[in-house]
Amino acid sequence: ALSEAHPVDLVFMDIHMPGMDGLEAAAHISRQEPPPAIIFITAYSEHALDAFEVNAVDYLLKPIRRQKLQAALEKATRLTRPLVQKEAEAETWLTSRYRGGVQRIALSDVYYFRADSKYVMVRHGGGESLLEDSLVSLEKRFPQELLRIHRSMLVRTAVISGLVKNLDGGVQVVFADIDDRLDVSRRHVPAVRRLLNGK
Questions:
Q1: What phi and psi, each to the nearest 5 degrees, are found at residue 14?
Q2: Could you write out the three-class secondary structure of 16-40?
Q3: Structural domain boundaries, residue 172
Q4: 75 lies in the same domain as 112
Q5: Which of 57, 123, 151, 188 suits 85 as a labelling partner, its CA being 20 to 30 A distant?
Q6: Is residue 184 one of the residues assigned to a domain?
Q7: Is residue 99 domain-resident?
Q8: How many CA atoms lie less than 13 Å away from 188 in the CB half-sphere?
Q9: Per-residue confidence band for 82, with pLDDT thresholds at 50, 70 and 90
Q10: Residue 147 burial by CB count (10 A; 0-12/13-18/19+): exposed, middle or buried?
């Protein structure tokens, strides 16, 4: 009732509460226009997937570490009021499991994906996370947003700022706001050049 009566940017929500539980309350709140961002703070890890079903920005387990809280707040700031249609949401979000919990990563926050043993490492604005998806499945899921630059590497095209030569004469992709440099295999260089030339 309060969030309907007054503009609210962010709601911290517990799961177990008297009367209506946090998941049901979040479902009601997420239907508001525009909806506030919701961060769950709870001692129960088993409800994480349900929390993301009601468009939660993050799911923090007690006791809360300052770094985790800060990262969640930064994510909520970047994804201001992140309600999307269910169909679009499946194509916009990635899910990473870690330490018994679940982390939700927006595709718009991703720089690149790198195959790492049986997992895929995703480099994003908040650092690095492991996914259970394969590079092939990610490439099929986001064909317009991702470009293969190496057999073990996919890059989000929107964040590529240029190509540079390394000391060995090879070519690397560079980004505007992170220092990472990624090797481009010889067969994929033409595709990256076409992208940068707008062709």
A1: -85, 165
A2: CCCCCCHHHHHHHHCCCCCCCEEEE
A3: 107-196
A4: no
A5: 123
A6: yes
A7: no
A8: 19
A9: very low
A10: buried
